[in-house]
Structure formats: structure tokens, C-alpha cells
Design goal:
There is one protein chain. Among the domains are: 429-523, Serine Threonine Protein Phosphatase 5, Tetratricopeptide repeat, CATH 1.25.40; 540-624, Serine Threonine Protein Phosphatase 5, Tetratricopeptide repeat (Alpha Horseshoe). It is 38% helix and 13% strand. The chain has helices at residues 58-78, 121-140, 172-175, 199-202, 208-224, 251-260, 272-280, 435-451, 455-468, 473-485, 489-502, 507-519, 523-536, 541-553, 557-570, 575-587, 591-604, 609-622; strands at residues 5-8, 11-14, 18-27, 30-37, 45-52, 87-93, 96-102, 104-108, 143-144, 153-156, 162-164, 330-331, 337-343, 346-350, 385-386, 393-394. Strands 1-2-3-4-5-7-6 form a 7-stranded antiparallel sheet, covered by helices on one side. Helix 8 packs antiparallel against helix 9, helix 10 packs antiparallel against helix 11 and helix 17 packs antiparallel against helix 18 (609-622).
Length: 624
């Protein structure tokens, strides 16, 4: 027996500290257990995850150990967010790796998204907003989740917030081995879930926008009431063909979702931050929501017993009231079976399975919570639980500094009936929010006003946000951009400098400061700032456009075209990029290419007089 395992009255103890109560799940990457911490008062519950390296080779064990330590450090950092489970401890023994994490009482979103019962548009917007707020924090830490799906999104019982669980990359520890499948490296095996995984992630090259894709698919699952595999795809473009299932969806929401789930990663929102900003512009006051009371957990006149062998190879799924004698079953004193639903390594406990869309290709039995037998409404509470059991991918990419903490989001009542999802009438004022939540709300409103060119009103909100949280680089950047719009250039530079003092490598602040310099005819200084912004964030399309314009302004047409091509690769609908590109091509005497580029600019913006005039000149040079 493993030296970390001890027996106390037939109940295993791990690491001389954690008593295993029940086995929560078995997956391809290890075993997960509900446990008690014997070293703390009241013996609080926690989750113990055991990862087993599939090799005894010293070289690969060294790699697994390094991955485990690195990803554990990432989990410690991520766990500081209120909506990500905390990592309490990690250790190794006998070539097995253990994580000890916070136990989340709640319900998996896969049990709230019910087959054939689509959510309303407003409900989907609130869901996306809730998920993206947490994911924006994750991306700000330069981490990719890699396995976002409804079963890895827990609706926390105590407050209804979405908790993001089961990060993807600590699973690398258990797949590092001698003989990976053909064509796959150690770090690309089996991470992600079919239906929610983008094509670039399937190819072993996940990006921040791979997570955005998965969130979009989860949103479509709620909006359509359909499993991802049934949504279909355009046979020509490869895009998700979802609109036919929801023909009445508003064009504003459709545009956001379409961009989230684009087949080509270059056409998606680069990170959750940009997706969240786009969502905040939709015609719905998300910040006006408040939490709804969550339905009481199902109560049982029983106690849960541990009946699982530590080395159980699998967890059988049961439904109905059949007695369970297999490894991993939870039983009560009346021999009524509590079933375990396992989705890879994530976990939810329930009495019966609702008709959920838990995984592509699965059709779990439909049983409403209201149909629970009367004898199961007594004492002792059994609630759904969730856990984060894996790590994350760390990238050396700088992102805008955003502060995400205890956000005000809207829970959905714990029921399989979608009519119980809260409506837009549940509205509080921001006085009920914490200072951090108020600042987040004010930032969102300020950004909306700024994008609508209501700069003076935006400045008021940015000022209020800064009073609540003086270290918000994003708010100072918003001030800079708004003051630039008001042509108060000196004050704009001060605000941009304030943002850069807080976050020196802030691409948007560098870009906005460059735009101010451009207005002041400080062209070379502006050019340098645009170069810095694009170097820090290669997916920053607007900065590439301004870099191209600046290069063209100093006569460097070839380099200008290269920069503008970068912008167009990120967003093909930038009329200014096509137009300036046409000008650069004209200057180089490449009139046919110039005319084609200007044609594209005019398709996007038909009233662009300068582009139309230059196109006519290009056509004359070509003889038509």
C-alpha cells in the first residue's frame, strides 16, 4: 500500500492528514476524493486529487514533477479569486502526485442546461457575463483554462456565482510517459473535451481565444437547448451553423457569439477581456441584477458512508433507486442509492440525473427535481459538489491589467425547469455591492459611454472607479482615451502616464498615448509607441492599423503594408486598414493591388470619399 495511505477504522487517511470520505470521480488522469482535514478544527471538507504518472522512467518522472510543481504554483495564484477553488496543499509520494483543494457546494451547469429547453436571450447574456468575468481574471494571469464546458462550471450554492473548476494542464503530469500516441507530444494528449475544443487546441496549440470559443459554445448550448454535436456546421466555411436553431436571436447577441466561436482563431476575441467588453455593450443592464435565493438542497434522512476502494478502476453510473454495490457508490442507511455523475475528472452528486446536455453524444435520463420521492425530504443535506483538479497553461504574454474579484452575477435557481431562471426584474442598486464590485460596474459603464463617444460622462465614471480603487490601470487608460476624444491632449498624456506607471507594459495605454502624440504631430514618438503596443499584444488589430498609418506617414510604405496586413489578418472588416494599404500600394506603383485593396475598403465603408477618389486614379493608371 502507498506509504501515504493509512487506515483508521477502515477509512483511509492520505498524507497523515486527509481522511477520505468518498470517491467523487475516476478519470483518465487519476482519482478524486471528498475528504476531511483532520488537522483543522471542525474537520472541514476538502477535495483530494491523486494523479499517477504513467511511467517509472526517471527522465519522464522529472518532467512530471516539474510540471506538477509549476502548475500547482499557478493554481495557488488563481485560487486567490473568489470564483476559483483555493489550492490548500500539494505533495508527492511514491511517484504519485496529490492536490488538496477547496470543496465547492453547488451544482454543475450541465444540470441546469436542459435538453430541449432553451434559455432566453437575457439569461444567456447573464451566463456569458458571469463566466467571462472569471475567465478574464484567468487570462490576465497569462493562463489558459483549456477545458471549459458546462460540467466544469459550478453554480455555487451559497451565493449562486459561477465557479470555474478543473483547469486542464495539471493533467499533463499523468500523461507524461514513454510512448504517447502517434503525432502527439506529451503536453497535448487528451486535454479538452470534444464539442467545446477549438481546432487550434485540437492541434496542440491552445490560445486564450480557445477558451473564448468554449464559452461561446456553452452559451449556444443554453441558447438552443442542443448539444454542441447537433448544432451543425457550414460545410464551406466550417463555422458553427447555429442561427437556424434560434432564428429570432437579436443581431447584437448573434454578432458577439459568432465572433466567440469563429473557426479561425484570428477572427475571435483575443481574450475573455475583449469578449467581456463586447458583451457589456449589449442593450441589457447586466449590472442591475442581484442574486436570487437558491433552492434548498435535497435532504436525506441518512449519512453518507465511504464504500470505495482506493484503487477502484472506474465509477459506474446508476440511475433510479437501484441499490449500488459497485466501487465508488454512495449509500445511505435505507439502502437508497445516491448516484455519482462523473464527467472525466469533474464531479457532481445528485439523487437523479435531469435531462441534461452533459457531454456530446450522451442522453442522460430526464427526471425533474420536483419528482423526487417524498421520503427523500428529511434531514441530512446532500448537495452537489465541484472541484478544481488540474492545472493551467502559463504563457509569456502581457495582457491589460484588470481587477476581478467578487463580482455581482446572477445565479440560476437550482432546478431543471428553465422557467425558474431569474428574469430581468431582479434589480438591486450598486450600494449593495462591495467597493471592488462597484468599481467593476463603473468601469463597464464608463467603457460603454466611451465607445459611444460620450466622453464627458465616461470621465465621471472613470473618476468614481478610481476613487474606489486607485490602482486601476484600465480606468486611467479609459480617462486617457476619453480626454483624447475631447481633444484635451495634455491631460490625456497625464492619464496615460498614470496607467503606465501602474502597468508599464499596458498595450492599450501605449496605443492611446501614441494616438495623442499623432494628434500633436509627434509622429516618430507615436510610431515607437505603436511598435511597443503591437510587440506586447500581437493580436491588437487597432494598434497595427495605427502603426501602418504612422509608417506610411513617414514614407515607409513596405513596412506599412506589412503592419496593415497584420491588422487585416486579425479583423478583415477594418475599412481604414484596407484604405491606407491601398494608399501605400499606390505609392509603390502597384496600382492593381491598390485598386483591389480600395475596393475592399469601399465595400466596408461605401461613403469613404478619399478611398473612392484614389481608386479612380488607380483605375486610370491601369487603363480602365
Amino acid at each position: 500500500m502507498n506509504s501515504l495511505f493509512q487506515q483508521s477504522d477502515s477509512v483511509p487517511i492520505v498524507g497523515n492528514r486527509y481522511r477520505l470520505i468518498s470517491q467523487l470521480g475516476v478519470g483518465g488522469f487519476g482519482h478524486t476524493f471528498l475528504a476531511q482535514d483532520l488537522h483543522l478544527p471542525d474537520r472541514p471538507r476538502c477535495v483530494v486529487k491523486r494523479l499517477v504518472a504513467r511511467t517509472t522512467d526517471a527522465k519522464h518522472l522529472k518532467t512530471a514533477r516539474r510540471l506538477f510543481d509549476t502548475e500547482a504554483k499557478v493554481l495557488y495564484q488563481l485560487g486567490k479569486h473568489d470564483q476559483i477553488p483555493s489550492l490548500f496543499a500539494h505533495f508527492e509520494d511514491n511517484q504519485e502526485f496529490y492536490l488538496v483543494q477547496e470543496f465547492i457546494e453547488g451544482e454543475s451547469l450541465s444540470r441546469q442546461i436542459v435538453k430541449g429547453k432553451p434559455w432566453s436571450e437575457e439569461q444567456v447574456i447573464v451566463l456569458l457575463y458571469d463566466i467571462l468575468q472569471v475567465l478574464a481574471f484567468v487570462h490576465q494571469q497569462n493562463v489558459i483554462h483549456r477545458d471549459i464546458k458546462p460540467s466544469n462550471l459550478m453554480r455555487r450554492r451559497k451565493d449562486g456565482k459561477i465557479v470555474l473548476i478543473d483547469f486542464g494542464a495539471v493533467k499533463q503530469v499523468s500523461v507524461t510517459g514513454d510512448d504517447p500516441p502517434s503525432g502527439m507530444t506529451d503536453l497535448t494528449i487528451s486535454i479538452g473535451t470534444k464539442g467545446y475544443t477549438s481546432n487550434e487546441q485540437l492541434a496542440g496549440k491552445p490560445r486564450f481565444c480557445s477558451d473564448v470559443y468554449a464559452v461561446g459554445i456553452a452559451g449556444l448550448q443554453a441558447l438552443t437547448g442542443m448539444s454542441p454535436k447537433h448544432l451543425g456546421e457550414d460545410t464551406v466555411t466550417g463555422e458553427v451553423a447555429w442561427r437556424v436553431h434560434v432564428p429570432t436571436v437579436s443581431p447584437e447577441l448573434a454578432e458577439v457569439i459568432d465572433r466567440m466561436v469563429c473557426y479561425d482563431f484570428r477572427d475571435r476575441y483575443p481574450t475573455a477581456i475583449e469578449a467581456l467588453e463586447a458583451l457589456e455593450q449589449l442593450p441589457i443592464q447586466l449590472s442591475e441584477y442581484q442574486f436570487q435565493p437558491w433552492i434548498e438542497a435535497v435532504e436525506l434522512d441518512s449519512t453518507v458512508e465511504f464504500r470505495s476502494a482506493i484503487d477502484a478502476r472506474s465509477t459506474q453510473l446508476e440511475t433510479g433507486a437501484t441499490n449500488a454495490t459497485h466501487n465508488g457508490a454512495l449509500t445511505n442507511s435505507h439502502d437508497e442509492t445516491l448516484t455519482l455523475t462523473t464527467d472525466n475528472d469533474s464531479f457532481a452528486t445528485s439523487i437523479y440525473h435531469p435531462e441534461s446536455l452533459q457531454e456530446p453524444g450522451e442522453d442522460p435520463p430526464a427526471t425533474a427535481l420536483s419528482k423526487l420521492p417524498k421520503q427523500l425530504t428529511k434531514r441530512s443535506t446532500i448537495v452537489a459538489g465541484g472541484l478544481a483538479i488540474a492545472g493551467a497553461t502559463v504563457l509569456s504574454v502581457s495582457l491589460p491589467s484588470l481587477k476581478f474579484g467578487n463580482h455581482s452575477t446572477v445565479p440560476f435557481v437550482s432546478s431543471v425547469n428553465s422557467s425558474t431562471v431569474p428574469s430581468l426584474s431582479s434589480i438591486p442598486n450598486t450600494k449593495s455591492l462591495s467597493p471592488q464590485q462597484q468599481a467593476t460596474h463603473l468601469l463597464g459603464e464608463a467603457d460603454r459611454l466611451r465607445k459611444q463617444r460620450q466622453y464627458s460622462q465616461a470621465l465621471v465614471n472613470y473618476d468614481q472607479a478610481i476613487k474606489l480603487q486607485p490602482n486601476l490601470a484600465r480606468a486611467y487608460w479609459g480617462q486617457c482615451d476619453s480626454l483624447s476624444g475631447l481633444r484635451q491632449f495634455d491631460q490625456a498624456i497625464v492619464a496615460c502616464n498614470d496607467a503606465l506607471d501602474l502597468q508599464p507594459d499596458y498595450p492599450k495605454a501605449l496605443w492611446s498615448k501614441g494616438k495623442v502624440f499623432k494628434q500633436q504631430d509627434r509622429d516618430l514618438e507615436a510610431l515607437r509607441l505603436f511598435e511597443q503596443a503591437t510587440a506586447l499584444d500581437p493580436n491588437f488589430a487597432e494598434a497595427w492599423v495605427d502603426l501602418g498609418i504612422a509608417l506610411q506617414g513617414v514614407g515607409r510604405s513596405v513596412e506599412a503594408i506589412e503592419a496593415l496586413d497584420q491588422a487585416i489578418a486579425l479583423n478583415r472588416n477594418l475599412a481604414e486598414a484596407w484604405s491606407v494599404r491601398g494608399t501605400a500600394l499606390w505609392n509603390l506603383g502597384r496600382f492593381d493591388q491598390a485598386a483591389a485593396s480600395l475596393d475592399k475598403a469601399l465595400q466596408i465603408q461605401p461613403d469613404a470619399a478619399d478611398a473612392r477618389a484614389l481608386r479612380e486614379l488607380a483605375r486610370k493608371e491601369l487603363g480602365y
